[in-house]
What we know:
This protein has helices spanning about 15-25, 25-35, 45-55, 110-125, 140-145, 175-180; strands at about 1-5, 5-10, 65-70, 75-85, 90-100, 130-135, 150-160, 165-175. It is an alpha+beta fold. Strands 1-2-3-4-5-6-8-7 form an 8-stranded mixed beta sheet, with helices on both faces. Strand 4 and strand 5 form a beta hairpin. It is globular, with a radius of gyration of 16 Å. The protein starts with a strand and ends with a helix.
Amino acid sequence: MFEGKSVRLRALSAEDAEHHLRWRNDPEVVRWAAAGDPCFGPVTAEAVGLAFDSMLRLSPRESAVFTVEDLASGRVIGMADYRDLDPYAGVATLGITIGEREFWGRGHGRDALRLLIAHLFGAYGLSRLELDTWSGNERAVRAFAGLGFREEGRRRSAVLMEGERYDSVLFGMLREEWANPA
C-alpha cells in the first residue's frame, strides 16, 4: 500500500469489481478514460468478472492493477496500473482512471500516478515510463506534463470520438527526469 497527499494505492481485490463495472458503463468515464473505445465499455458483469479473474492473478514482475482510494474518506475512486514491464529494457507503460466524477480535476489522478512512478522507478529500477492519451483529454495532458512527462510523439487522427478525429499522444519520462525535475 502506498499513500500520497490525497490518495492511497492498494492491491486490487475481488470486491473492486463492482466499481469497475459501474465506471465501464458510465459513458462519461468511457469518454475520458478510453476516448469512447467500445472495448472499454459498456460491459456486462460477467465480462468484468472474467477480467478480474485475470487481473487478480497478474504477476507484479510484468503488470499490476491498483485500486485508488481517496485518503480522506477511504472511498474507492479509481484504478492505476502498469503493464508491459520489461526489466531488460527497463520500461513499463502506465495507466490511470479516476472513475468517480466528483473527484475529477482535483489532483487525485496526478497523486496516484506520482505514487506509481515512485514505486516503479524505486522498486524496479526502471529507466523509462510511458503512457498515452487522446489529444482531446486536456486534463490528462496537463496532469502528465505537470508530473514531468514529455510529449514524445503523436499518431495523427488515430482516435475517433463522436465523429471527430483526435491524435493519440505518447508521453515518456526517464528516470533522471523524475529524480531531477526541470
